[in-house]
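Re: your question about LysR family transcriptional regulator

S., sorry for the slow reply, the queue was backed up all week. Below is exactly what I fed in.
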Amino acid sequence: MPSLNAIRVFEVAARHVSFVRAAEELHVTHGAVSRQIMQLEEALGVALFERRNRAVFLTREGAAFKLTCSEVMQQLALGIRQIRRPDYQQALVVSCEPTLAMRWLIPRINSFKSCCPGIDLHLFAAGGAIDFQSSHVDLALRRNDFKWGLDCHAEPVARELVAPVCVPALLKAGNLHLDQQSLLQTASRPDAWRRWEAASGTPLLSPSSTQYEHFYLTLQAASAGLGVAMASIYMVEEELKNRRLIAPFGFVEDGSEYYLLSPLPFAADHRRQAFLDWLRDELKTTRLNIAAL
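Result:
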């Protein structure tokens, strides 16, 4: 067997495809990483990296070995966690997109506690790509608007449904004329209105628009009567129930989905599987509740 420390160094370097970033994560020098990789290549008799122009690239053998090492390290990490303390004492760390966390997940945490009383949740608000190892996150709830790695276990939990929402006062004779309103845009979903236009078949006739940095700011602006926002069905349930906002056109699927991501198989950890099952049920309940309004 080659040195286990060299295998560990390779796994980090392969994950980053960089000796420099591997050295930073491992708190060693670039030269130390390079020496460990060279020793591993000599022990295996194959080149794992191709070095050129001060950059490194995985060879075919290196890419295959990376998958094996990643799986082994994940299983080792899980084994250590299980030995270190009982499962019921471990908090499940969940990363969730900020607006979805504030408007949907946080109000339902007590529901999860009632359903799974032996599992504690720690919640982080974040979006986009995630490095599970460096962030110490167990699960990430994301929309599939970016590509995650092949070594990431991804389970679909709900299709995205969207609709224009506004305060009732913007209706004229019972209708909402989008060409006469300011369409509220969000930088995190710049194509939201165009996706809705394609999905609903409703043309947008070059209306005026105002952009906000975050999704929740866009929804707040809509609640203040500043225009019409494109909203996810999972983020406006309370506003629709109490009629602070209305969705005159109804909700349509925009072609995207929400996924729960994990660095380990869900079946390998009953806490992950429990959260996955609960999440699917709660998202379905939200859709049914709004359909019944």
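The mean pLDDT is 90. The chain has three domains: 4-84, 87-156+257-291, 160-255.

Happy to talk it through on Thursday.
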